[in-house]
Amino acid sequence: MTFPFTMQMPLEHQSVLPDAxxxxxxxxxxxxxxxxxxxxxxxxxxxxxxxxxxxxxQSSRNWGWIRAQGRDPAELPIMAEAAAMWRxxxxxxxxxxxxxQTGVTYLATKTTEIGGYEDWLPHAKAHGLDSEILTAKQxxxxxxNGQAGWVGALHTASDMKAEPWVALPAIARAAVRxxxxxxxxxxxxxxxxxxxxxxxxVSEHGRIKASEVVLAGGAWSQLFLRRHEISIPQxxxxxxxxxxxxxxxxxxxxxxxxxxxxxxxxxxxxxxxxAGFHELYVGPDAFRAVGRYAKALLADFSGTRLLPLAPTGFxxxxxxxxxxxxxxxSPFERNRILxxxxxxxxxxxxxxxxxxTFPALGDVKIKTAWAxxxxxxxxxxxxxxxxxxxxxxxxxxxxGHGFGIGPAFGRIVARIVRGEPAGYxxxxxxxGRFTDGSxxxxxxxx
Length: 446
Prior knowledge:
Distance between the termini: 31 Å
Low-confidence stretches: none
Strand content: 15-25%
Largest sheet: 10 strands, mixed
CATH architecture: 3-Layer(bba) Sandwich
Shape: globular
Number of helices: 12
CATH superfamily: FAD/NAD(P)-binding domain
CATH class: Alpha Beta
């Protein structure tokens, strides 16, 4: 699989829709595929239905970081399990998924940023991480050719990276070898419900019976849930990413300062993204949920640009249907892969900023650019919980952090589906936290 990501990607997973299974998973992103794999390992029959392609959306469009650094404290023990799972998958899967331990670094251009890093550091120490504050000299030794005036950094040497558009397709193939059925180009239109419980789903290719359904639909989850009169305050933001042509190595890990994030890729180029910048299309869901996001928006006001109209067919576009019958063509069939156009001005600025940070590189050539729609929640942590509908489990709103932690959340979702203890305190990720009067607590803005 290569980038950019289009419907020209060949169909890899085609099977006849079975009449029945134990679990249906909606969505073949990192969460859906790992959930299915974990369920299959325990002997359950699992079918993953994907409206487009495996890893067609955000799971292949992210930065490729696998990090514990900067995470919400409730995610840190889960991330430790995810890191171990990544290492095991790299050893077990007969394909190179690009997993490398190269560290993640948050670069500070102001001394006030160091204070924020110091506030988070006790959480890292409590979970045994090797995170540390670097001085300006130590930072210069780590990234010797940078010319951005960094005054220090937060660095976690044990953090890793992988190649997203290579890793998840390889993981999906491993899941299939374990017995998972994946069917691409097969949108789930509605849940099949009887007597207040899920008894399966209705797909574009027919019904399939199942006593358990997992919704891991990423940016499409809220639209699917609202069709069934279930609501979560999930929105999606556009994030632009660019890939350079091969360049001389300036740093082998992942790093970010106040201008841009960068990561060395396996092909010798760098993945670049603007630091802390995203764009929100204001549609019906955004309009309804804006109050819930006020705290997050005020905390990072300069990092969000509002756009008035989502492109036709996007989940929160004004013209997207919110209601349809099981016999209707659904919005998920009308837009197989959510493929937003990148922000061209951002792409040009990324090239200039990277060249300015590392003048020895000379002219930085952009090989390609893309964008993804990141599913987010008001407190910047996901929903991983049973829905208020018997037989339905929700795993969505990964807030751009899902790639790295995805394997462990997949394992947790599998435990929930099997009726087992999750293994962690899941209160932070519960479905009802936005409606039960709980105080909104933002995750770390790191």
